[in-house]
């Protein structure tokens, strides 16, 4: 690692609570974003994450992109993929974790984790999983970025800046809801949870 200081990485680990392979992926994705986009400010950068795994905390902490500022966008696709854009230049790219980045360690880790989950793991199994996790996070922290991620330039698809919209009162629960998140049903304006209750087909 060379882009972020040791202190920045330690602070990101403290923010998340621990260092793990998932957080290492996020740290390296944040590094890739800063390098490829020429160090954008936390207002210029936009991050689109396709997972809710540990690494998202590192991306948020190290790039300054946040849900509250509207420049950290979560798409629940279950993919280890991250897109980054710079609002000022329009430059962007999508990075997907290279399957080979894990060095073939994931299958044994998955099997050991399942044994632990089902109460069948020995002390040696638990120790082995800990060793594998440490080996993987070390590998991920030092692998060249171009080997770790498969990158595709993004010339379109820069998310729109956040807008302040009116709030409408849900006619079922009475709670105010952002206009763009309401639904119409039976002549009523409903929030999404109330709409789901009355519109259920099963």
* Sheet/helix structural class: alpha+beta
CATH topology of the largest domain: 60s Ribosomal Protein L30, Chain: A
Looking at the overall shape, the CATH architecture of the largest domain is 2-Layer Sandwich
SSE string, helix = H, strand = E?
HHEHEEEHHHEEEEEH
The low-pLDDT segments are: none
Rg computed from alpha carbons, rounded to a whole number of angstroms:
21 Å
**Cα separation of the termini:** 52 Å
How helical, in percent, are the residues?
25-40%
Beta strand %:
15-25%
Main beta-sheet annotation: 5 strands, mixed
CATH class of the largest domain: Alpha Beta
Count of beta strands: 9
Average pLDDT reading? 91
Main β-sheet, spatial strand arrangement: 2-1-3-4-5
Shape: globular
Number of helices: 7
InterPro entries: FmdE (IPR026328), FmdEsu_dom (IPR003814), tRNA_methyltr_O (IPR053194), Znf_DskA_TraR (IPR000962)
Domain Zinc finger DksA/TraR C4-type: 167-200
Domain Formylmethanofuran dehydrogenase subunit E: 15-149
GO molecular function, one term: zinc ion binding
Structure description:
Helix content is 40%, strand content 19%. The longest helix is centred in the middle third of the chain and has 20 residues, at 123-142. The protein has helices at 6-16, 21-36, 55-63, 106-117, 123-142, 145-148, 192-199; strands spanning 45-49, 72-74, 81-86, 92-97, 149-153, 167-169, 176-178, 182-185, 188-191. The model has no long low-confidence stretch (mean pLDDT 91). The N and C termini lie far apart (52 Å). Strand 8 and strand 9 form a beta hairpin. The protein is an alpha+beta fold and 202 residues long. The protein is built from seven helices and nine strands; from the N terminus they run H-H-E-H-E-E-E-H-H-H-E-E-E-E-E-H. The strands form three sheets. It has a five-stranded mixed beta sheet with strand order 2-1-3-4-5. It has a two-stranded antiparallel sheet with strand order 6-7. A two-stranded antiparallel ribbon has the order 8-9. It has two domains: 6-153, 60s Ribosomal Protein L30, Chain: A; 167-199, Wheat Germ Agglutinin (Isolectin 2), domain 1 (2-Layer Sandwich), CATH 3.30.60.
